[in-house]
TrEMBL record:
Coiled coil: none annotated. Residues 1-70 are annotated as: Disordered. Its main location: nucleus. Residues 1-23 have a biased composition (Low complexity). Residues 174-280 form the TF-B3 domain. Residues 24-34 have a biased composition (Pro residues). This is Uncharacterized protein. It comes from the Eukaryota. Residues 60-115 form the AP2/ERF domain.
Length: 338
DNA sequence: AATTGTGTTGAC
DNA sequence: TCAACACAATTG
């Protein structure tokens, strides 16, 4: 049941001694006009107005292909076989996804759409610290930036200001006693409508066409990061955690009656945590429903709010990327390398 | 039903 | 290697 990508994870990373820490302040510079290389094959004549043009517009970026629905796909070739890097709303996102893959697959000399990463870029070390398959996975799940974010936090030098407690302060949000369907084949965790609407009000989630949802990251008891898609099901009119949930259930061995707790860091980062308490089943019957405790956190607010500080905007970006004009990706990557 | 991602082919 | 095109497999 391993859903590993079609890439092999060979090619040992031999340049592990490049763990540099460069404080790049991520300039909020807008997406720079692409500096393309000589690759005159772009016929950028958007004639979408002409009725139903079944001809999809070619992308001016390398490794980017148009999708029937107007989005863009990213792909790279390796050993005569295509490696799909996912679909994106913006060409730039797809192009940058390709760039990331290219640098991981073919090294820094790889031809890229945007200026390559500087030798001391965080991304470079980050990329090569992971297998190709994992990089591809992050790209496909649009998780790249988020993982990078977490990675950076881990590497960030402890200012010795850490609280006395060994673990960062976190507040309990609520518990959910999982139902049979929560751990069944439906691959979803239902979040009570009341709770969801009160604390997870997400613009666009309930919209008629906005069944896209939002990606949320949780850290479990052992420090592993889990990402779930939070969305609204029109059919059942319920809020659910879908993508990624089944994996969590499987790995944790969750069973009906077990309790899953949700927490949130009291810090400004609003980091979310998830923990599961496996009920010691002694052959007996699991206890029915439990209670949902409310909590005071607004995901959107946490993400956007943090952005006003100018720093940690990745979470906000992540949320923003769910919408139409999302140009948040690789804000930095496209500028580095001058 | 809507989208993604693969099969496949032909050009570079 | 690369991308255009068609379409089957998935997902919401």
């Amino acid at each position: 049941m391993d859903s590993s990508s079609c890439i092999d994870e060979s090619s040992a990373s031999s340049d592990a001694g490049a763990a540099i820490l460069s404080p790049s302040p991520t300039p909020p510079s807008p997406p720079p006009p692409l500096q393309r290389m000589g690759s005159g094959t772009s016929t950028l004549t958007i004639a979408e107005s002409s009725s139903e043009s079944r001809k999809l517009p070619s992308s001016q970026y390398k490794g980017v292909v148009p999708q029937p629905n107007g989005r863009w796909g990213a792909q790279i070739y390796e050993k005569h076989q295509r490696v799909w890097l996912g679909t994106f709303n913006l060409e730039r996102e797809a192009a940058c996804a390709y760039d990331a893959a290219a640098q991981r697959f073919r090294g820094r000399d790889a031809a890229t759409n945007f200026p390559p990463l500087s030798p001391d870029a965080h991304e470079l070390a980050f990329l090569h610290a992971r297998s190709k398959a994992e990089v591809v996975d992050m790209l496909r799940k649009h998780t790249y930036l988020d993982e990078l974010h977490h990675s950076r936090l881990r590497l960030s030098p402890p200012p010795s200001f850490l609280p006395s407690a060994s673990k960062p302060p976190r507040e309990h949000l609520f518990d959910k006693s999982v139902t049979p369907s929560d751990v069944g084949k439906l691959n979803r965790l239902v979040i009570p409508k009341q709770q969801a609407e009160k604390h997870f009000s997400l613009p666009g989630v309930v919209g008629g066409e906005g069944a896209k949802g939002l990606l949320l990251s949780f850290e479990d008891g052992v420090g592993k990061v889990w990402r779930f898609r939070y969305s609204y099901w029109n059919s059942s009119q319920s809020y659910v955690l879908t993508k990624g949930w089944s994996r969590f259930v499987k790995e944790k061995g969750l069973k009906a009656g077990d309790t899953v707790g949700f927490y949130r860091s009291k810090g400004g980062d609003g980091q979310l945590y998830i923990e599961c308490r496996i009920r010691a089943a002694v052959g007996g019957v699991v206890s029915p429903a439990k209670v949902f405790r409310l909590f005071g956190v607004d995901i959107m607010k946490a993400a956007v709010g943090a952005n006003e500080n100018g720093k940690r905007g990745l979470e906000a970006l992540e949320a923003a990327m769910s919408g139409p004009g999302s140009a948040g990706w690789f804000k930095k990557q496209c500028v580095v390398g001058m």
